[in-house]
Amino acid sequence: MAKALALLHREIVACRACPRLVAWREEVARVKVRRFQDWTYWGRPVPGFGDPKAGLLIVGLAPAAHGANRTGRMFTGDRSGDFLYAALHRNGFASQPDSVRKDDGLRLEGVFISAPVRCAPPANKPLPEELASCARWLDRELDLLPAVRVVLALGSIGWNAVLGHFARHGIALARPRPAFGHGAEAALRPGLVLLGSYHVSQQNTNTGKLTPPMFDSVLARAKEILSVRVRKFPDGP
């Protein structure tokens, strides 16, 4: 599976399907911002990241313009990632509490991180047609993660993208369609559960809409479903 994921990720990185997203991600990579002027931006689609044997899949929204679009790794190099990886570290899924660059030694165990959109969108708002075009990558990534038993969607776009994936795969969803909410839970099929959390964006974490205890509670529920024992990673990479 690791080899198949690596081959898929090469395809993702080469994608130029959405002209608006291609133009934006490359303009951001060219113009940069002052604090990252010495960086060579990634400026391409961002593949998923994590453990190919993961029981937990986290689905976000899209790369941040000066986060993953700069570093080339999901939730790496921005405040959202600071919040997420600190929580994953506290809960035994990550080897360190922060994520600065692709080669910083971060390792994930039992968790894989993906997104419904792989290019940084203007104003963090992908268009419906861009979500539809990018859905194939989430479909193919999920097909190569057979151990996933819990999917944690960060925000309503991630939640709906996950439901869309399983609908396309012939899973009969409950009626009415499960609604997103923080702490929401929906059984997609026997042995597979969808959980919801507010997104780890600064808009939510800086205002207190999402706090570390709130997010830890959702991760605790994921671990309860998975019946996993928290791993104690050693300090350092």
Characterize the structure shown:
The protein is built from 8 helices and 6 strands. By secondary structure, the chain is an alpha/beta fold. It has one domain (2-226): Uracil-DNA Glycosylase, subunit E. β5 and β6 (192-197) form a beta hairpin. α4 (79-90) crosses α8 (212-226) and α5 crosses α6 (156-168). It is globular. It starts with a helix and ends in an 11-residue tail after the last helix.
Would you spell out the secondary-structure blueprint of this structure?
Blueprint: H1 2-13, H2 19-31, E1 49-50, E2 56-59, H3 68-71, H4 79-90, E3 111-114, H5 128-143, E4 150-154, H6 156-168, E5 185-189, E6 192-197, H7 202-205, H8 212-226
Care to give the gist of this entry?
The chain is an alpha/beta fold and 237 residues long. It has eight helices and six strands, in the order ααββααβαβαββαα.
Which features characterize this protein?
Uracil-DNA Glycosylase, subunit E, 11% strand, 38% helix
Q: Strand-and-helix sequence, N→C?
A: HHEEHHEHEHEEHH
Distance between the termini: 24 Å
CATH class: Alpha Beta
Helical content band: 25-40%
Please count the helical segments.
8
Helical/strand content category? alpha/beta
Name given to the CATH architecture:
3-Layer(aba) Sandwich
What proportion of the residues form beta strands (DSSP E)? Answer: 5-15%
Parts with pLDDT < 50 across at least 5 consecutive residues? none
**CATH homologous superfamily - what is it?**
Uracil-DNA glycosylase-like domain
CATH fold topology = Uracil-DNA Glycosylase, subunit E
Largest sheet: 6 strands, mixed
Number of DSSP E strands:
6
The strands making up the biggest β-sheet line up spatially as 1-3-2-4-6-5
State mean pLDDT (0 to 100 scale).
94
What would you report as the Rg, rounded to the nearest angstrom?
17 Å
Domain unit count: 1
Principal-axis shape: globular
